[in-house]
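FAQ

Q: What does a record look like?
A: Structure on top, sequence underneath. For example:
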């Protein structure tokens, strides 16, 4: 690392804080603070959506999978891209029309206020652990950049994200994510990818140096690919961090086309990461751990200045996911859990200073909690696996069922959340956190419970379904519905 590299990184970090301050001046309502006023156009929407889904796991972890398995190491990030494409093409327009702030509010609107608190707790746990895993990644990056102690690195990186997120909420995060998207594109796709391939001698040399399996599209194993799709593709369909970005779209068309562009970008990013990892295998065949591949190739193979930019790209990947997960966690904690316990409601239009201040306080509190847990926790992969398993096993069926099956009921949704979540947790305790069985049987149990209990109980009230259909269609609801609809009342 030279003075030029350090300067690039320090300027980048200072720019993130400056954008946070500027975003604070634009956050004048709850809508501004939580969903950027619901007015992002296609370019900004697609850039920020790509930024949040492509975090440290997709960048550092994606290169590590390429190092370990070759081109088939792209499947984890491909699964993320496929999930984002499915969300954008099939569901994003309907989600955006609901004009809610959280997934739990959507469940309340659909089922009549019967499952929001429980689903809110599940979603809160998922977003909290997602923010934690992103924050832990600061330790690796700051160690490469500055040689900092792990705890200091986590506190430093976490403090920067908490600061700009607390100042301006989603507007600050949107502005910083756009910068992070550009930095990642330039640093990883346009600089690191071609330089790594050239340093490895080109594709012909890579093929001659490595076993044939490194260039097989299914070398990682069919069962692994299937599990990635179940966890990550379906996780993209229901995560609060992803839905909260959908809510920022200006209209249906932006949500659909902008999300499709972001999903396509994810597929390119997946292949790039796997190729970089494969090149690193040629250059450094005896690394201690696959996840060291990214830092090693950046440190040893890149010229002055470029090294700083690519490390800033890795930092931006982690920060974008961390900030998105943090505001999602705080939004759920404040509006789906704390407000419900106090018997309060969240208005979907307008805001008072107290409402913005309350959300700001919760971002700060959740940020401090994330930093504290990150310092105490070591195993990132297990924490992320627990988060996605509980999310998908507990909430996938009630959410997709609510969108696709009108016979689904609130009792069925509650049963699905409870049975699916408990099955996943029990099997993780029995088979191990990283086993495939928890998500397989958790989803099956959740589906059976949802269908069986829904059919055995009284159909959802026609008035509730009428409000739901009108909101899905983008039609105006009754005048009082903004204040009293099931989407904004406690469960």
């Amino acid at each position: 690392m030279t003075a030029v590299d350090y300067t690039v990184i320090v300027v980048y970090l200072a720019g993130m804080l400056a954008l946070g301050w500027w975003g604070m001046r634009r956050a004048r309502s709850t809508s501004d603070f939580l969903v950027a006023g619901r007015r992002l156009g296609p370019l900004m929407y697609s850039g920020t959506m790509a930024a949040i889904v492509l975090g440290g796991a997709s960048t550092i972890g994606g290169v590590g999978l390429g190092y370990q398995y070759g081109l088939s190491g792209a499947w984890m990030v491909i699964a993320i891209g496929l999930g984002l494409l499915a969300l954008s093409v099939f569901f994003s327009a309907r989600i955006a029309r609901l004009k809610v702030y959280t997934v739990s509010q959507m469940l309340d609107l659909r089922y009549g206020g019967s499952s929001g608190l429980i689903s809110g707790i599940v979603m809160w746990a998922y977003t909290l652990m997602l923010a934690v895993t992103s924050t832990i990644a600061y330790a690796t990056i700051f160690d490469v950049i500055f040689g900092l102690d792990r705890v200091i690195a986590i506190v430093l990186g976490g403090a920067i994200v908490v600061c700009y997120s607390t100042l301006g909420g989603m507007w600050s995060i949107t502005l910083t994510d756009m910068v992070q998207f550009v930095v990642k594109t330039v640093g990883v796709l346009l600089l690191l990818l071609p330089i790594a391939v050239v340093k490895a001698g080109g594709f012909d040399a890579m093929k001659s140096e490595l076993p044939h399996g490194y260039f097989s599209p299914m070398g990682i194993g069919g069962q692994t690919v299937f599990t990635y799709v179940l966890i990550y593709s379906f996780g993209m369909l229901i995560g609060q961090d992803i839905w909260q970005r959908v809510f920022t779209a200006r209209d249906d068309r932006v949500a659909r086309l902008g999300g499709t562009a972001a999903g396509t970008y994810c597929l390119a990013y997946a292949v790039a990461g796997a190729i970089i990892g494969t090149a690193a295998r040629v250059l450094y065949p005896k690394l201690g751990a696959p996840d060291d591949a990214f830092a090693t190739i950046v440190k040893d193979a890149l010229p002055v200045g470029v090294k700083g930019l690519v490390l800033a790209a890795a930092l931006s990947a982690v920060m974008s996911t961390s900030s998105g997960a943090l505001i999602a966690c705080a939004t759920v904690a404040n509006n789906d859990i704390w407000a419900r316990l106090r018997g309060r409601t969240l208005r979907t239009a307008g805001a008072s200073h107290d409402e913005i201040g309350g959300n700001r306080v919760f971002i700060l509190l959740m940020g401090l909690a994330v930093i504290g847990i990150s310092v105490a926790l070591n195993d990132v992969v297990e924490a992320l696996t627990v988060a996605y398993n509980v999310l998908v096993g507990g909430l996938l069926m009630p959410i997709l069922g609510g969108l696709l099956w009108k016979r689904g009921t609130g009792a069925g949704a509650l049963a699905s959340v409870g049975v699916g979540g408990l099955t996943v947790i029990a099997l993780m305790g029995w088979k191990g956190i990283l086993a495939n069985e928890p998500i397989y049987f958790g989803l099956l149990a959740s589906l059976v419970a949802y269908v069986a209990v829904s059919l055995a109980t009284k159909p959802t009230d026609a008035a509730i379904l009428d409000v739901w259909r009108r909101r899905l269609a983008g039609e105006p609801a009754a005048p009082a519905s903004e204040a009293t609809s099931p989407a904004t009342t406690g469960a």
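Q: Is there anything notable about this one?
A: The radius of gyration is 22 Å.
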